Amino acid sequence: MKKTILTGLRPTGNLHLGHFFGAGRTWRDIQDEYDFYLEIADVQALTDNFDNPEKVRKNVYEITKDLLSIGIKPENVHFFIQSQIPEIAELTVFYSNLVTVSRLQRNPTVKTEIAQKKELFGNDGESITYGFLGYPVSQAADITCFKGECVPVGDDQLPLIEQCREIVRKFNNIYGETLKVPEPLLSNTPRIKGLDGNEKMGKSLGNAIYLVDDEETIKKKIMGALTDTNKIKKDDPANPDVCMVYYYHKLVNSEENNNIICNECKKGARGCVQCKKELITKMNEFLEPIREKRKYYDNNPNEVNKVLEEGTKLAKEKAIETMKEVKKAMKIDY
Ligand code: ATP
Ligand code: MG
User: Fold this and answer.
1) Is 80 helix (H, G, I), strand (E, B) or coil?
2) pLDDT (tens digit, 9 = 90+) per residue, 146-161?
3) Ligand 2 center to residue 256 CA distance, Å?
4) Torsion of CA 263, 268, 269, 274, to 10 degrees
5) How would you classify the pairing of strands 35-40 and 4-9?
6) For residue 201, which atom of ligand 1 is closest to its CA?
7) Atom of ligand 1 at shortest distance to CA of 48?
8) Cα 28 to Cα 36: distance, rounded to the nearest angstrom
9) Ligand 2 centre distance from Cα of residue 241 (Å)
């Protein structure tokens, strides 16, 4: 029996390098070893985009095409749209009794995100919505509705998985052993930094390199990336460890080249402009095959719709099965 994976993305923008190296590459590499459910989390995206439903709708298709372009295959992975599985919303309501408001407020990921969304939630999060504060509960329902055992994610998701594990343990304690406690799975690059040096490259942070970026955009973004601010002149020695250009070289360039880059940078034998130009070339080489595949899905939207329809149908069957067991355990199986 294959183990079950549940993981997902919020349709708030296209896939970026953070998604690919933090999670997507792992999904691609292990996809045929698991019973794999991949959620396009439109309900979760609406928690902080409730006033922009067009954006969420558009990105459901954008993100599906991006995922297909990096080699996630619908014959291995069930792509599904969260809003089309109302069982998840039902399970969220049941779970909301098993978590305290203060526990949600203390969740480190929720705290960081509230701080980043001042415009929406106010300076100290005083205008936070019930829906946003509760999204980790909904995410626990996402995972367990499909009996997810393994959740491959970037490390910003770890506190959310821990929250899910607590809810599951509490559920099993009260209602009897019904649900599986999921385990996170991290890649060896679990957090990719942004072009501005921010600890996280994020769709909502405006510091991302997207897999759909064209050559001109890549050039502009890399030319503007943060380098060692202490380096003033071309031949000043610098510290590659604080430079985002070297950081991305390590993702897309060879080890041999990176050793040369690192040594030359430290000795002051390499200017930043040259280094950025080399990165632009390597980044485009990395992105080109993804762009090619993406063109195919842009030209075949029916194929993309079919992937979502078939995956959602299968996911729905699994969710119905789980809910029968949940309701029986909770003695609401009338
Ligand atoms: P949003 O800002 O809308 O939350 P996001 O860029 O954080 O968008 P998500 O859809 O929330 O993207 O995350 C999808 C997956 O990608 C998660 O597993 C998350 O951990 C991972 N991920 C996102 N950004 C990064 C990053 N910079 N480094 C590593 N993993 C990441
Ligand atoms: Mg996120």
Assistant:
1) strand
2) 999 999 999 999 999 9
3) 33
4) 100
5) parallel
6) 27
7) 3
8) 11
9) 25
| 290 C-alpha to ligand 1 centroid (Å) | 19
Instruction: DSSP for 9-73, please give it.
Output: E-SSS--BHHHIIIIIHHHHHHGGGSEEEEEE-HHHHHHTTTT-HHHHHHHHHHHHHHHHHTT--
Ligand 1 atom with the shortest distance to the CA of 155:
20
Gap from CA of 97 to ligand 2 centroid (Å): 25
C-alpha 54/C-alpha 62 separation (Å) is 12
Question: Residue 215 and residue 205: Cα distance in Å, rounded?
Answer: 21
Token look-up 């992105």 returns: 287
Distance CA 9, CA 21 (A): 14
pLDDT tens digit string along 280-332?
999 999 999 999 999 999 999 999 999 999 999 999 999 999 999 999 999 99
Domains of the chain: 4-192+301-329 (3.40.50.620), 213-294 (1.10.240.10)
Query: Distance between CA atoms of 219 and 281, rounded to whole angstroms?
Result: 9
Q: Are 136 and 96 in contact (CB under 8 A)?
A: no
Q: Which is it for strands 77-81 and 35-40: parallel, antiparallel or unpaired? A: parallel
Residues with CB under 6 A from ligand 1: 9-10, 12, 18-19, 22-23, 153-154, 156-157, 190-192, 200-204
Which alpha helices (DSSP H) does 101-134 contain, by range?
101-106, 108-116, 118-121, 130-133
